[in-house]
């Protein structure tokens, strides 16, 4: 079994990694989905659930839930089947620690785009939680940096620069995933 | 005048950037040299000087000295001459703030290599302050990360991946420097 974490600041292109991986039969675990699923179970709001989950189970509950999810998954399937997992949205060095403890060959792929590129992407995309002005953009970056995402990015096993074109970015993702799958 | 900062964890290849830049008539300012020069002036040890300088002038004395150096330099020369500077060894977001305040078009180039690659380089290189065992290597990384270098790397304007071959790395450096010089 191979588990790979994906990290990057908002607008860097993390979701494209998940899309490419899905086409390669890799299972995708989104850290955000763990909270969303729990919110549905509790019939509560997402923001409220995120806070409560941490109060009840500590800061690393989301990472720990991801580990459980992957372990359940791998019990379900045929033992002969080579399972691969991508965890999208890793933000803190402590999360990395938890994943490394549970999955011996755990690797991190970081995606980098310049602040200028990320800002213009987020502006174009305008998801509900995306930032459309510079102050908001910086605030959002700082929120992520406070979790320690900068350290996760700086010490990643792979770094993909995503400044376009998208086919080049997708090729880099495919090459890394193929390389990681071959090794295990 | 264009000023570009270079950042990267130990063993990533920062000094190659300086070497390439020198061949392109770019002036190199090494943050470490500022302390070394001051130590010679004071006839004191480097480590001791680093501590004393900070005690006397605050945490950002090295960045501020670099700014002074660059400003002196640019007064010396012919005003028509397009001066370019590389500052090697930027580690903290506060240093970036100081440089951005003083040089309007200031840009950061980050160099990334995987921890595995950096460790084997440092082991091969064995400079006095380089780490030859994993614990020492991690300790040194953590010392840099505590300064906030992860945030500087994650939010850099350019990211160069240096996993070899060296000619490819040098080409990337040249392209970025040419691009930055053209713009200003």
UniProtKB/TrEMBL annotation, chains A, B:
The keyword ATP-binding applies. Pfam families: AAA_17 (PF13207). InterPro entries: NTP_hydrolase-rel (IPR022970), P-loop_NTPase (IPR027417). Coiled coil: none annotated. Keywords: ATP-binding, Nucleotide-binding. One of its GO terms (molecular function) is ATP binding. ATP binds at residues 8-15. Gene3D superfamilies: P-loop containing nucleotide triphosphate hydrolases (3.40.50.300). Belongs to the UPF0200 family. PANTHER family: DEPHOSPHO-COA KINASE (PTHR41930:SF1), UPF0200 PROTEIN MJ1399 (PTHR41930). This is UPF0200 protein ASJ80_09170. The lineage of its organism: Archaea, Methanobacteriati, Methanobacteriota, Methanomada group, Methanobacteria.
């Amino acid at each position: 079994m191979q588990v790979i974490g994906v990290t990057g600041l908002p607008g860097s292109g993390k979701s494209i990694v998940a899309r490419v991986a899905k086409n390669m039969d890799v299972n995708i675990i989104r850290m955000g989905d763990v909270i969303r699923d729990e919110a549905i179970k509790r019939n509560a709001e997402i923001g409220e659930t995120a806070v409560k989950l941490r109060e009840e189970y500590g800061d690393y509950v989301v990472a720990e839930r991801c580990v459980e999810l992957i372990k359940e998954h791998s019990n379900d399937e045929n033992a002969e089947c080579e399972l691969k997992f991508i965890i999208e949205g890793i933000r803190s060095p402590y999360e990395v620690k938890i994943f490394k403890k549970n999955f011996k060959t755990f690797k991190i792929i970081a995606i980098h785009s310049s602040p200028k590129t990320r800002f213009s992407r987020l502006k174009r995309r305008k998801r509900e939680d995306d930032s459309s002005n510079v102050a908001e953009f910086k605030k959002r970056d700082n929120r992520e940096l406070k979790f320690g995402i900068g350290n996760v990015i700086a010490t990643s096993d792979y770094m993909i620069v995503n400044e376009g074109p998208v086919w080049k970015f997708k090729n880099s993702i495919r090459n890394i995933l193929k390389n990681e799958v071959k090794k295990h």
